[in-house]
Amino acid sequence: MSEIFDVVIIGAGPGGYVGAVRAAQLGLKTAIVEKDSTLGGTCLNVGCIPSKALLDSSEHFDMAKSHFSEHGVEVNSVGLNLPKMMERKEKIVKDLTKGVAYLMRKNKVTVFEGLGSLESPNMVVVAGSDGSKKTIETKNIVIATGSVPNSLPNLAFDGKQIISSTEALSLEKVPEHLIVVGGGVIGLELGSVWLRLGSKVSVVEFSDKICGGMDKQICDQMKRILEKQGFHFHMSTKVTGARLSKDSVSVTMESLSDGNVSSLEGDVVLVAAGRRPYTSGLGIDRLGIETDKAGRILVDDHLRAKKYPNVYAIGDCILDYACTRRRCGRYGDYCGQKRTCKLFNSAWNRLHLARGCFCWLYRRAVKRKRFSL
Ligand SMILES: Cc1cc2nc3c(=O)[nH]c(=O)nc-3n(C[C@H](O)[C@H](O)[C@H](O)COP(=O)(O)OP(=O)(O)OC[C@H]3O[C@@H](n4cnc5c(N)ncnc54)[C@H](O)[C@@H]3O)c2cc1C
């Protein structure tokens, strides 16, 4: 007789792996399905962790190059070894993803490598890259398939000159002029990395403020600080297209305030215009699991998909990412204890968690410029 799991989780990012550990700790027979060869999802592989590793390294470089002398520390020449910096980042990623694999083993979570989809509310099919197919029977399913970078219709990713955050974490050389489309946290964070390493960085932002939904006072202060560091901002400006040539890219844009049309010449364009839920190909439409227009799975206060009380969803596939971590930390409870998530659904919390997430960047900038909080 084939084994029946209590819970099968699709996706091994922070939503999936934290939940898997928690479910196993609560005594549930748990499996996790991951399409990539390493566990940890966006966060560990191409998100929070590598970006913070590069922020850390680039800050050391910038300090040594431009700020040590203020402290009376004289360094004759400071050089950049980008491959070495990338190697350090990759080692951090590797160590942490291996740590997640260890956690799975330690907690006796069965890991299936392959693309998961829902055959029924009690059946998950795992398609391996070798063409194999495996069907897993389960009492509960958790969808934790995360999100992918948004592309813009007139700026299709080519992975070289028009890139997403994933490629911006692994550039082989420092761009002379990096054009960042989108002044949200990811664009500013990666812009900071390359600015510190020597790029000119221009940010084109549709809105009249950076940092998305954050408090306007913080956004304005943040923008002033970043400008002092060398960022160039084109606010209330819409990118209308890009023309590629061998070594450069010309971005055309239109001011929303006066309709003025202009262009920027750069060598790399980072499109950081948000992320969209990764829910296609899961078979959820066939089962009638509802999503919103963006593709986010609609869930109730217990993170259950409407219509099926045993199908749950968590993380970026249900909401904007600022809230994810907090929810992920709590949702293991749902499998065994069914606690309510009302508190974390409220608008108040969305706002404050978003502010909290960004706080570290603000603090650092403030520290550098000797403002007080
Ligand atoms: C550059 C960058 C920096 C960031 N920095 C921060 C930060 O500082 N703080 C913060 O809180 N957040 C940050 N984030 C956001 C954070 O990474 C996400 O919110 C978080 O990873 C979401 O977790 P998740 O588990 O929902 O999805 P993900 O981490 O995206 O994981 C989903 C997993 O599911 C797998 N998957 C998808 N579909 C299937 C399928 N059908 N079958 C099997 N596997 C599947 C994917 O391969 C992936 O491994 C950052 C993101 C980026 C891109």
Give the uncertain stretches in residue-range form: 321-363, 369-373
- CATH hierarchy: architecture of the largest domain: 3-Layer(bba) Sandwich
Q: What is the rounded Rg?
A: 22 Å
Cofactors and ligands present?
flavin-adenine dinucleotide
Structural shape: globular
Q: What do we call the CATH topology of the largest domain?
A: FAD/NAD(P)-binding domain
Task: Please give the share of residues in helix.
Answer: 25-40%
Helix/strand class: alpha/beta
Order of helices and strands: EHEHHHEEEEEEHEHEHEEEEEEHEHHH
CATH class of the largest domain: Alpha Beta
Portion in strands: 15-25%
The pLDDT mean sits at 88
Q: Mind describing the biggest β-sheet?
A: 7 strands, mixed
Would you count the extended β strands for me? 17
Overview of this structure, please?
The chain is an alpha/beta fold and 373 residues long. It folds into two domains: 4-149 and 276-342, FAD/NAD(P)-binding domain (3-Layer(bba) Sandwich); 162-272, FAD/NAD(P)-binding domain. 37% of the residues lie in helices and 23% in strands. The protein has helices at 14-25, 41-46, 48-67, 82-106, 165-168, 185-196, 216-229, 284-287, 324-337, 342-345, 347-369; strands at residues 4-10, 30-34, 110-113, 115-120, 123-127, 133-143, 147-149, 162-163, 177-181, 200-204, 232-234, 237-244, 249-255, 261-266, 268-271, 275-277, 311-313. The strands form four sheets. Strands 1, 2, 3, 4, 5, 6 and 17 form a seven-stranded mixed beta sheet that branches. It has a five-stranded parallel beta sheet with strand order 8-15-9-10-11. The chain is globular, with a radius of gyration of 22 Å. Residues 321-363 and 369-373 have low confidence and may be disordered. Residues 10-16, 33-36, 41-43, 47-48, 51, 115-116, 144-147, 165, 186, 278, 282, 315-316, 321, 324-325, 357 line the site of flavin-adenine dinucleotide.
